[in-house]
Amino acid sequence: EAQVTQNPRYLITVTGKKLTVTCSQNMNHEYMSWYRQDPGLGLRQIYYSMNVEVTDKGDVPEGYKVSRKEKRNFPLILESPSPNQTSLYFCASSLRRGVAGTYNEQFFGPGTRLTVL
Amino acid sequence: GNSVTQMEGPVTLSEEAFLTINCTYTATGYPSLFWYVQYPGEGLQLLLKATKADDKGSNKGFEATYRKETTSFHLEKGSVQVSDSAVYFCALRNSQAGTALIFGKGTTLSVSS
Fold this sequence. Notes:
Order of helices and strands of chain B: EEEEEEEEEEEE
Shape of chain B: globular
Helix content of chain A: under 10%
Oligomer: heterodimer
């Protein structure tokens, strides 16, 4: 089954304790991305990757790191989490480019609900 | 810049009522447009999409038409069901957004029997 998986699904942690949220896709997609979803703000992009070893900042990258060593995996790293990073996080993937310059839909993982105390 | 504006709701309807959720966008070039749905406690699922002007996306009884002249992509369904209760997000994607999906803030739909 084609899917994007994330782990863990739920995480409660304390300020300053490094954590990693994993993301993996089995669709051979070049493009992967992380979003956070907050009430009243909708979804905002944190980081994205156009392909292996190619990553770039989205709209809200502060406090986050990513890496793309393999095509299928795109982990999100919080080196020193703070309470303002409490949020619902989604990983997504897609093919890079659609037909004739159009843009493909992104496939989303189930989400990771993170609480930083 | 790129942005998406949609009615925030909540929208409360009775079963079999007609649904419209308005969505307008601002974007340079020719974005692709999407509607995603988020059921309670779940991730986002693609509901439908349209990639060029006048295209109509449709799925599960929902429809939306890409109107470049009014920069709109309104979501409609002729007869909603209780199982349609969810949050609906309008989104666009184009090269100038770095290929990110730019989302509206979401519209909560609640359907009662």
